[in-house]
């Protein structure tokens, strides 16, 4: 018999066989736990010396004789369902008492513990408490949590095979990976009816994801201390983690991700996920959603199902957007207005008024030739079509996702799932900070509550903080605008030679407008990222200050705060360029200034502001996606590499499964929050401003193909295994997406109408006589005339700022972008009738486009049912079978009971069924 020897704190040694030491220790532990629930001063007998030595000895083991990938206790039979870790520190006695009471109470509820001494850990200071949930505990809490388990094999034929399904063969994964478990009809587990369910092996009946969910439920509700008044317990592993009693709490991965487990009794799902899902070269393969759900739980599975579906739908938007861009490229030579701008006869003879005071000189229209050609790539007739298409696409995406979600709800046994546990289970922080108590009408128990006055005060303070930070964003945007105005003058002065003489610099023309737009967009992106880092902590702090009652309420409050902030942070600069820049400029002699300063409001060049909006969108969107992927992949890897540096020098056999996972990063309860937020912000970029950049869906598609694999890789390799959680939908994000879908129709209609030059060109084209050159003369008609002599001294260029070709004695007028009467007219410098015709056309376009798109959206939403008919039939079939099988089960059970009581004939005693008619009694008896 193998014997374990170890020091017990003094010079004495203890020798026990593994079986004896374990049994004696656990028995002692149970006695210790019983005495811990009250007080040792109430007359309980103290622990025996052998039991005390066991608790102090912690059942040390020679790890060289165990597989480093073992996920079982030392007996190789009982599975490790959860691991707690802690270290001794200066507050050791106080924390040790909490741990003693907490672990004793865990044993009291039936959990089994095994503790690894710090001398056996890789850092020499960390203790590990391994937790196993036996069958009785699992069955009890599976009944409490209403976990669905199989009772009958699914007998409904699967008709989901599509014609020519062989075409999708290259994108498929092996069947055992896609569907790792057989399909069953399921029902909520009932401990009193265990023989009703298909229970083969009790050790494997509940998968590891359900086991760690049950154990975490117990850990969250188990108490560790009674308060001074003695009227309530302090409970929950989260509070123990917050106060440093434990350093970590996590379920184990089943093996190393790069190789299969050597233990035949252990699955290798992590290895399968890494091989078939997390690898980048699997980007064209389908996701093994059933295996993800089995290993990580439904909440994470739903996220990846949504991300994958979103990526698939982006493929269609990317194709159409690319076609629209190609159309703009192919019609490049048909761009009559750009030809006029670039020609020496038209653009070369049009002298434009200065774009800023003092430092900007007069310039020729043909200096904007390059930006005019670039603008045509995005500002053409296809832009209108694509804006309408995206309004319909977003509806199809949301409606088809509802159907996909409904199918997953059925397949993953979430049809009747409501997040009642999240709604009813109080957060430990809420219980700790709320001293008042009242009766809960649902649970009929006294529970803490937050007074209305305190709740209102905290909500008001939280709202004021959010408004303060939003104001900070607006102040930063104003600062960037001021930068644009100030720097434009500097660029105009420095680059006046290249702007006026068409000097080519590294290929494209570098104009003051382009230089200002690119540098301002880069600065704005840096400000956005800095504010995000700062506000994330503020949002968590003010949400904690509000003391939400439940975890679901906490997530919803944090979601609203973070999304509102990031919506303003990411989109405010795009809204400025799209709807404000160039709209409040004035005209020479009557310019508008920013807040009464000497900084004149920005103008759009004759090419329009659309190209600047495109530049802003590309820089912010692309920068965010690239930075996000680098940060998500690189930061966890570096932190894990640094954290495991000591373990790398140890022999491989000394680095146990729980130590390997302990050195990984914690995924956190809000781990999916950042992932959803990132994708929803991207969704806003490709819907709210897509009329300005048809290639946005293509960029998003490329990013998401990488995003799926990066998220899978870091979850599989860089993070501890999250606690499995249920979720039947994407939650509050669904309503946010619906709101953005409606807003996108409005923003794109306004972009086409007011930001692009589409409507002015169409009005000009249809008001001209028929002919091949309908757009001839459009540029000249869109520019108004002003007398140079009438320009105030404060607006005139300084000496030396004007280009060499400018001669004030010859050139007496300049042009500016507007529709105003020329000098000498009786209504000089007031808007012409053409201005009002164009404005009316813009408003009419907005109304017509919005009504058409909304009408189509609502019709499509009405035509597509949220739940497929096949799923409805399956749900009804399953509910019918549950009732039928439960009825037959009760009848068979009664037959057995009657047989045991001596009633072997078909005559049922009336007292057994006092309320049933005679024929029903006989039926039940038979």
Automatic annotation (TrEMBL):
Region (Disordered): 1-45
GO molecular function: chloride channel activity; protein dimerization activity
Ranges of Low complexity composition bias in the record: 34-45
UniProt domain Anoctamin transmembrane: residue ranges: 292-878
Keyword Membrane: yes
Transmembrane segments: 303-330, 381-401, 466-494, 514-535, 683-706, 736-756, 843-864
Topology in the lipid bilayer: Multi-pass membrane protein
Domain called Anoctamin dimerisation: residue spans: 72-289
Subcellular location: Cell membrane; Membrane
Keyword annotations from UniProtKB, A to Z: Cell membrane, Glycoprotein, Membrane, Transmembrane, Transmembrane helix
UniProt xrefs under InterPro entries: Anoct_dimer (IPR032394), Anoctamin (IPR007632), Anoctamin_TM (IPR049452)
Chief subcellular location: membrane
GO CC, one annotated term: plasma membrane
Family as reported in the entry's similarity comment: Belongs to the anoctamin family.
Protein name as catalogued: Anoctamin
Species of provenance: Sander lucioperca (Pike-perch)
């Amino acid at each position: 018999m193998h014997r374990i020897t170890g020091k017990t704190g003094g010079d004495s040694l203890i020798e026990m066989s593994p079986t004896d030491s374990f049994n004696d220790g656990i028995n002692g532990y149970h006695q210790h736990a019983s005495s811990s629930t009250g007080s040792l001063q109430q007359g309980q007998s103290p622990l025996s010396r052998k039991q005390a030595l066991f608790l102090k000895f912690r059942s040390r083991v020679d790890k060289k004789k165990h597989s480093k990938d073992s996920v079982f206790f030392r007996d190789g039979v009982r599975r490790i369902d959860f691991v707690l870790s802690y270290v001794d520190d200066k507050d050791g006695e106080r924390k040790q008492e909490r741990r003693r009471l907490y672990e004793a109470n865990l044993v009291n509820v039936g959990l089994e513990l095994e503790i690894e001494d710090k001398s056996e850990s890789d850092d020499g200071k960390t203790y590990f408490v391994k937790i196993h949930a036996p069958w009785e505990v699992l069955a009890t809490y599976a009944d409490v949590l209403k976990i669905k388990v199989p009772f009958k094999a699914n007998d409904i034929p699967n008709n989901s095979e599509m014609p020519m399904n062989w075409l999708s063969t290259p994108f498929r994964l092996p069947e055992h990976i896609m569907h790792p478990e057989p399909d069953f009809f399921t029902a909520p587990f009932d401990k009193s009816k265990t023989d009703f369910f298909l229970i083969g092996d009790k050790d494997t009946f509940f998968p590891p994801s359900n086991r760690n969910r049950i154990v975490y439920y117990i850990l969250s509700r188990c108490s560790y201390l009674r308060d001074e008044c003695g009227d309530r317990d302090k409970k929950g592993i989260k509070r123990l983690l917050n106060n440093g009693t434990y350093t970590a709490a996590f379920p184990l991965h089943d093996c190393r991700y790069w190789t299969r487990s050597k233990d035949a009794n252990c699955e290798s799902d992590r290895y399968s996920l890494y091989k078939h899902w997390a690898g980048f070269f699997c980007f064209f393969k389908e996701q093994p959603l059933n295996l993800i759900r089995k290993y990580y739980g439904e909440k994470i599975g739903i996220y990846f199902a949504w991300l994958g579906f979103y990526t698939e739908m982006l493929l269609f938007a990317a194709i159409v957007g690319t076609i629209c861009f190609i159309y703009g490229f192919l019609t490049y030579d048909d761009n009559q207005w750009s030809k006029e701008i670039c020609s020496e006869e038209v653009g070369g003879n049009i002298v434009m008024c200065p774009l800023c005071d003092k430092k900007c000189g007069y310039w020729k229209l043909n200096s904007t030739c390059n930006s005019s050609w670039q603008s045509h790539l995005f500002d053409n007739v296809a832009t209108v079509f694509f804006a309408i298409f995206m309004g319909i696409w977003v509806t199809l995406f949301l409606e088809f996702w509802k159907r996909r979600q409904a199918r997953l709800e059925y397949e993953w046994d979430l049809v009747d799932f409501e997040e009642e546990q999240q709604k009813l289970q109080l957060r430990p922080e809420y219980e700790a900070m709320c001293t008042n108590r009242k009766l809960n009408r649902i649970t009929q128990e006294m529970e803490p509550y937050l007074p209305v006055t305190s709740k209102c005060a905290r909500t008001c303070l939280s709202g004021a903080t959010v408004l303060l930070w939003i104001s900070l964003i607006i102040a930063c945007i104003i600062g960037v605008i001021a930068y644009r105005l100030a720097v434009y003058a500097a660029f105009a002065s420095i680059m006046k030679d290249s702007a006026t003489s068409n000097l080519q610099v590294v290929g494209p023309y570098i104009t003051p407008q382009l230089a200002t737009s690119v540098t301002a967009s880069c600065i704005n992106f840096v400000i956005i990222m800095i504010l995000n880092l700062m506000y994330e902590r503020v949002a968590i702090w003010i949400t904690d200050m509000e003391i939400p009652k439940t975890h679901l309420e906490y997530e919803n409050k944090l979601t609203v705060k973070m999304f509102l902030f990031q919506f303003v942070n990411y989109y405010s600069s795009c809204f400025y360029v799209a709807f404000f820049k160039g709209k409040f400029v004035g005209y020479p002699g009557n310019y508008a200034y920013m807040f009464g300063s000497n900084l004149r409001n920005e103008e759009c060049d004759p090419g329009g502001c659309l190209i600047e909006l495109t530049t802003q969108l590309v820089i912010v969107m692309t920068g965010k996606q690239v930075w996000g992927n680098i940060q998500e992949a690189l930061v966890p890897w570096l932190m894990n590499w640094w954290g495991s540096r000591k373990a790398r020098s140890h022999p491989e056999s000394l680095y146990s499964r729980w130590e390997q996972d302990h050195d990984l990063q914690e995924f956190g309860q809000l781990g999916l929050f950042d992932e959803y937020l990132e994708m929803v912000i991207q969704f806003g970029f490709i819907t709210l401003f897509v009329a300005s950049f048809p290639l946005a869906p293509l960029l998003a598609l490329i990013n998401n193909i990488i995003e799926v694999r990066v998220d899978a890789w870091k979850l599989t390799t860089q993070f501890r295994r999250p606690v499995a959680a249920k979720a039947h939908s994407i939650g509050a994000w669904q309503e946010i997406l619906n709101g953005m879908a409606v807003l996108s129709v409005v923003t794109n209609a306004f972009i086409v109408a007011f930001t692009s030059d589409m409507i002015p060109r169409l009005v000009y084209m249809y008001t001209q006589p028929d002919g091949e050159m309908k757009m001839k003369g459009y540029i000249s008609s869109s520019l108004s005339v002003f007398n140079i002599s009438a320009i105030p001294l404060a607006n005139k260029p300084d000496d030396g700022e004007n280009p060499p070709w400018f001669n004030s004695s010859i050139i007496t007028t300049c042009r500016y972008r507007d529709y105003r009467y020329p000098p000498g007219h009786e209504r000089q410098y007031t808007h012409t009738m053409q201005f009002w015709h164009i404005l009316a056309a813009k408003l009419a376009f907005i109304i017509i486009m919005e009504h058409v798109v909304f009408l189509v959206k609502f019709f499509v939403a009405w035509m597509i049912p949220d739940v497929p008919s096949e799923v409805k039939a399956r749900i009804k079939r399953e509910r019918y079978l549950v009732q039928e099988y439960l009825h037959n089960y009760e009848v068979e059970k009664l037959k057995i009971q009657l047989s045991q009581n001596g009633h072997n004939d078909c005559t049922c005693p009336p007292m057994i069924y006092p309320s049933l008619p005679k024929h029903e009694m006989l039926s039940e008896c038979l």
